[in-house]
Amino acid sequence: MDAISGDINEIHQTLHACLQVGRLERAAGLVRRLNQIYKTDAPGLLAAHNDYVKELSHRIVQTGDQQLLQDLQRWFEVELCGTGVMPTEVTYALMIQASLQASDAKKARTVRRYVGLAEKAGLVEETMELLSALERTGVANANSTSTVPSQSLSESNGPLAQVADEAPEVPHTASNRTLEAIPEVRKTPQKGYGLLTLKKSLALLPNPANLTPSDYLNRTIGENEERQRSLERNTLEAAMERWQAEDAHLKSIGVNSGLSKSTIGGMMWQWHEKLILVIRDEIRKSHEAENNGARSKSDLDRLLWAPYLQSLAPDKMSAVTILTAMKCCSTDAGDERGLRLQHVVLKIGDAVQHECLAERLRNNKSLANWRDLANMTKGSTQRNSRAKLANESISLDYDHLEWEKATRIRLGAVLLSHLMDIAKVQVSREDPVTKEKVSESQPVFFHTYQYILGKRVGVVRLNSAVVERLARGPVTSALAKYLPMIAEPRPWVGYREGGFLEHSVPVVRIDYSDTHAKRYAITASQNGDMSQIFAGLDILGKTPWKINRYVFDTMLKVWNTGKAFAKIPPEDPPSEFPDAPPASNEPGARAAWLRQQREFHNHWSGLRSQRCFQNFQLEVARAYLNETFYFPHNIDFRGRAYPLAPFMNHMGSDNCRGLLLFAKGKELTTEGLWWLKVHLANVYGYDKASFNERLQFTEDHRAEIYESATNPLGGSRWWLDAEDPWQCLAACNELKNALDLPDPTRYVCQLPIHQDGTCNGLQHYAALGGDVAGAQQVNLEPGQRPSDVYTGVAEIVKAKIAEHAVQGNELAKALEGKISRKIVKQTVMTNVYGVTFVGAKRQVQRQLDDLFPDFPDTRPVNRRLAASYIAKEIFTGLSSMFTGAHDIQYWLTDCAARISESIAPEQVAYLGNIAKGVKVPSQFKSKTLKGTPKNDIAAFKSSVVWTTPLKMPVVQPYRKETSRRISTHLQKISILGKSAADPVHKAKQVQAFPPNFIHSLDATHMFLTALKCDEVGLTFAAIHDSFWTHAGDVDTMNRIIRDAFIRMHSEDIIGRLSAEFKARYKDFMHLASVPSDSPIGQKILAWRRDEYRLKKIKQTAETKTRKLDARKWDEMLLEHRRMTLLASEDPQEREEGEKMITPGRIFDEAADEKALAPTDVKIATIGGMSPSTADSSMRSAKLKANQQIEVGDLENAEAAESATGEGVAAITSEAGLETPEAAEAVAVEDDLEDADVEANHEDEELDLKVDEKKKKKYAKVWLWLPLTFPPVPKKVCSISKFFF
User: Which subcellular locations apply to this protein (predicted)?
Assistant: First the structure.
């Protein structure tokens, strides 16, 4: 087994790959190798044995092979039990299942033997339960991991059995009319061939212009499911069929497919045929390598990736390679510079893995009728039994379904290398001497090197002759897998079971390398803890949609003009860049010109990108005009739901939302007509008035509404002035159609009506902190009209600017009359989610750029300085509006800081054993494994982990990445990765926790609302804190929204979180600190000096250079021993512990929580303002504002932005002093940007005065304490008849 990698995870994944492709001898060798690595009681070893036994058992059930049954029984006796591995109930159940296939003479005796062994082990009840689950679910026949041979192209795939369901009801509304010719969408010129690729994928759907109403009205559910399956899986089959057809056509007319003038499909068929032969030859060589006694380097390398090369049939492996390589080098790059080799080979490896997963899903017959499966697994006993036996071979330690990044890169490099060898194109050129036309064969792909940012990087580029061919006919990619579904999504029943019918995706969006979070998610799924999340995702996914034909027709007309219209950018944005200033001008003029150039280019490229993406959306909308479609959803690590279809979904911008309707309509009713009118006022932008005022607004503009609906592109075009013009046009049309009826309340309306939360993050903070004043600002308490926190902040900013203008501030004078709700909205909204000061400045500047393009651009008055000024006032205004929320944010931050600087009891025990010279227990027999990343046991590895009210575990993924170099067929490649063994990123853990926690509450509220809406029969969709339903159901949904919020916050959420932290991090040790000039700090320093004197440690060069970390771990073990002795039941040991003097004891005797120094990490709070030194609250004592830069204090913006920690190394001494870390920003939302160097110069010009005393950093003294958490802040007001 010398050809096996030492990386333990790769060994497990290679084992699984060998079992999947039927290489049982090599799989047996891998398990024997694991026997040499693991100790007999290691869970990883037992998982490997069970995987092997499971595969053999399934093959025996399928084939009845008696020889294989004897081999399995011999394995059980010799390799499993004979080596000391203890079987589990799963092992016994699988052995009984296989033994039931024995001949009649031996069956009864063999079965009795394994039942007796299970009974002797005390597992007979569990074994029989699992055996029954096998028979009940059909896992034995359906869930084998073996790859079913693919049908050849000449074999036709028979259709699935149709489900005898009635066609879905299609409401009869004004928009249902006979189809007419639908114009093509005007193509936007763009780099690459993504648009043409999308159009080829959409061609899999029937052309809507060629359909009659009966074509789509009479489809059954079964027919739609079969069409969806075909849409997901036909990428490879359709591509190969097209290549073969084009090649045959060219040969019939006497054209060589290798010529540059032939079609791209014909050339690809030639490559395809050759690559199949090469792949088969590689598989043959890998079998020979296994049997070679003396293996060469190429043999050893081949055995690393050979099992994965067999994971697909050679024809599919070839097609995946060709399609992915061509797509990467054409669509992703779009020019002749090429792409990084690492990007291409990783994409090929990813594509192979995804196709392998999809094929396994298709071959899993138990999922063919997923409705029965979903119903069958509702019971907890059946679900748990099935999870143990048939959870896609997922173990908690090794997720075989997701290959290691190194494996995918190696496999991709092998396939790309072979493709580069065989893919040729005939190119004609003129001989420079004879002037004759010469034809020569050239490679299609070139592997070269370029210098990027000073580093030599391998790149892959296409031959220019092929690039020319691609411009006329690009390749089809797997985009069809990510389009909206035309059948109802599969219900979620497991970590990778749900959503698409043929395409497997995880339910939680977790990075492949984040094994820590993945284990939590898999365990929660198997234990049934994610059941409510699964149910909520199913509700979101089963909501049927359709395209609003009226809005589409209008949008297509204006789109095809190529001009700017209603948030649609022009096809050719103005490209007159500003002229360069004369060389004689002052230096500042050129800097200003360069800044203008950059801003103009960013604006121009933004318009181009927006136009290109809207082109994609219109193409999708056109293809789905007559379809009922669905958006499958999954969640991010915080529990927020997102649709899986990226091009067209209801989370898009105004133009995308305006195109969408519910597929099923409901009568308006009187209440619904009222809400439709209010909704129209909302999308117009008149959404902060009272309801009666909004209703009157709609009535006052009835003439404009009729004109907009009947003549949208003529007349006054009133709807174009709306804040969301396309949604306004859709509402105008629905309202007109309703009012045209004798009884408008009977109109069947399909328009979704939105109910948006008022800055939901602030709502949750106000409820958590019992902040009545803040609650009134975000509509948690009733009022005469809706409160608007954005308008409130804008008014505060206006007042401050007016005050400063009177005092002569030139910047304030330039801003008078220019502050609006729109300018402050994004910053207020994202402030609660941790936006940095510089991020806020950028947000404000974007608004100033859009609203006031002619704003002065001088040194004392310009948009950058204005943005800084406004952002400061926004933060100041926010800080004055919320009080209780501040305490919650600081408490969350403090908890995260302590967790991220703590070590687990296992680490403490490990370090203690090392210090004592005791052999450290391990599940492995050898100390180190070749290829295993270094595990720094002394590093801080504790992520912040919590459980949402719906029992979903949330694991913050922020860890420091490690680099690793691997050798491939083409070159060495460096890859970055992170695992649970890597240290946590403290700054990101701390800064991201408060916003992530609020996001998890927001997601919980949405799911609670979705579950109740579905229970009472409402159609439901959501965009985080914006909930959609039919107009007639809005009142019902509003009651459900309020009840769900009350239900959440009626519980002590923060108290429960505190209790969870105390239980989860019990016995952890925390590296705390106190100010060095405090009495406690002085005592600890004196104790350390005495320790050195008592131990007679000489201050030599060696001791001066000794790492501080080493002393930290020594003192940690000392403190741990003291705590262990104090907790002992032996009086003598307790007495010994009481006599010990440590920094922890000094702290216990002389101080409390308030004496601890605050976290070094700069945090962003509501308003970004730290409490003043006069504040007597708990957070004031913790912050010690007179001893450090106030966290988030914008009056100290210059110091806060530029704090880097220079010049502090001198304070670090043998006495154990340390200094604050450099603050690092973390982006928790797309709009939350990191600080950049431009901030310093701008803030200097703002003349923000900073107290010199506050600028000075102070040294801190570290000490070890048991990990405890600060007291939960008390609510500002705990009595309210409304929400808290």
Answer: Mitochondrion
pLDDT-derived band at 592, boundaries 50, 70, 90:
confident
∠ Cα 752 757 761 (to 5°): 140
pLDDT confidence bin for 954, thresholds 50/70/90: very high
Our answer to whether residue 894 is catalytic in this structure is no
Please list, in sequence order, all residues whose beta carbon lies within 8 angstroms of the beta carbon of residue 910, skipping any fewer than 6 positions away.
Answer: 920, 937
For residue 148 the two structure tokens come to: 């079913």
**Contact (Cβ atoms closer than 8 angstroms) between residue 888 and residue 1055:** no
Q: Residue 390, CB half-sphere, CA atoms under 13 Å: how many?
A: 30
Q: List the beta strands (DSSP E) in 870-941.
A: 902-903
Residue with tokens 């608007």, as numbered in its chain:
788
Residue 337 phi/psi, 5° resolution? Answer: -70, -25
Query: For residue 283, is pLDDT > 60?
Result: yes
- Is 825 annotated as catalytic? yes
For residue 716, what are its two tokens? 């006054």
Q: Is 84 left (phi over 0), alpha (psi -120 to 50) or beta?
A: left
Q: Mean pLDDT of all residues in the chain?
A: 76
d(CA 61, CA 144): 10
State the SS3 of 137-200. Answer: HCHHHHCCCCCCCCCCCCCCCCCCCCCCCCCCCCCCCCCCCCCCCCCCCCCCCCCCCHHHHHHH
Q: How far apart (Å, rounded) are the C-alpha atoms in residues 956 and 978?
A: 13
Q: For residue 290, how many C-alpha atoms fall within 13 Å in the half-sphere facing its CB?
A: 19
* Contacts of 92 by beta carbon, 8 Å cutoff, 6+ apart: 114, 115, 117, 118, 121, 123, 127
**Tokens 């074994």 -> residue:** 127
DSSP-derived pairing of the beta strands 748-749 and 753-756: unpaired
Tell me the CA distances in angstroms from 361 to 317, 367, 398, one per residue in order.
17, 7, 19
With b meaning 16 or more CB within 10 Å and e meaning fewer, what string describes 815-844? Answer: beeebebebbbbbbbbbbbbbbbbbbbbbb
CB 989 within 8 Å of CB 944 = yes
Distance (Å, rounded) from C-alpha 747 to C-alpha 174? 10
Q: Which of 71, 397, 756, 1175 is an active site residue?
A: 756
The one catalytic residue in 1025, 1033, 1160, 1193 is 1025
Give the integer Cα–Cα distance in Å for 609 and 659: 20
Which residue type does 721 have?
D
H-run or E-run covering 506 = none
Residue 495 corresponds to which amino acid?
Y
DSSP string, 43-110: HHHHHHHHHHHHHHHHHHHHH--HHHHHHHHHIIIIIIGGGTPPP-HHHHHHHHHHHTTS-HHHHHHH
Q: Which of 299-303, 319-323, 811-815, 919-923 has the lowest mean pLDDT?
A: 919-923
* Single-letter residue type at 1254: K
Q: What are residue 460's phi and psi, to 5 degrees?
A: -120, 130
- Contact between 632 and 500 under an 8 Å Cβ cutoff? The reply is yes
Which tokens go with 658? 């305006």
- Nearest to 637, CA basis, from 957, 414, 906: 957
- The total of other beta-carbon atoms located within 10 Å of residue 1241's CB is 11
Residues 1051-1095 pLDDT 10s: 899 999 999 999 999 999 999 999 988 889 899 999 988 876 666
The residue count for the chain: 1284
Q: Which of 141-150, 1030-1039, 1122-1131 has the highest mean pLDDT?
A: 1030-1039
H or E element, residue 1072: strand 1069-1075
Catalytic residue, chosen from 54, 424, 825, 1012, is 825
- CA dist., res. 273 & res. 278, Å (int): 9
Neighbour tally for 151: CB within 10 Å = 12
Residue 1090 annotated to the active site: no
CA pair distance 754, 1031, nearest whole angstrom: 9
Token couple for 467: 């690039």
Give the residue from 676, 543, 531, 553 showing the smallest Cα distance to 622: 553
